[in-house]
Amino acid sequence: MNRRFFLLALCSVFLSLPAFRVSAQELNCTVEVNSQQVQGQESTFEALREGINEYMNSTKFSSAQFSPNEKIECRLFLTVTEYTDDVVKGNIQVQSSRPVYNSSYTTTLLNYKDNKVEFEYRPHQQMIFSETTMEDNLTALLNYYAYLILALDFDSFSSRGGQPYYDRLQSIVQMAQSSGEIGWKTYDDNRNRAAVLSALTDASTQTFRDLIYDYHRRGLDEMSVAPDKGRATITKSLSILDGIRQKSPMSVALTMWHDSKLDELINVYSKGSQSERDEVYKLLLDLYPTDASRLNDIKNPPETR
Question: Which residues, other chains included, contact 155 with Cβ-Cβ below 8 Å and sequence gap of 6+?
Answer without folding.
Answer: 161, 162, 209, 212, 213
